[in-house]
Amino acid sequence: MTPEERLVRYREQLVEVEKAISAILGGAQEYRIGSRSIKRPDLGKLYEERNRLEQEIRSIEDGGMFRLAYFEGR
Predict the structure, then answer these.
(1) 3-class state of residue 35 by DSSP
(2) Number of other residues whose CB lies within 10 A of the CB of residue 27
């Protein structure tokens, strides 16, 4: 997977995590649809995932782990 593809994927995941955080903050931690019960992940875990995704995105946008620097001679 190219860095550009990873960047798109991480941004899409970040949007989903943000939606889940907003839903929980809006009072939708757990709800029922008929006989089925849906419970969203723990808010703390979502914050951790958001931080991880933001860090991954920054890393890709900043050029990854390695950078090229040029220093002129003395």
Answers:
(1) coil
(2) 8
Residue 7 to residue 53: CA distance in whole angstroms: 10
| Structure tokens belonging to residue 39 | 């419970």
pLDDT tens figures, 23-73: 888 876 777 788 888 777 788 999 999 999 999 999 999 886 555 666 777
Dig out the tokens for 67 from the structure: 């950078």
Unique residue bearing structure tokens 């946008």:
61
Crossing angle (nearest 10°) for helices 43-61 and 3-25: 150
Q: In terms of C-beta density within 10 A (0-12 exposed, 13-18 middle, 19 or more buried), how is residue 17 classed?
A: buried
Amino acid at 55: Q
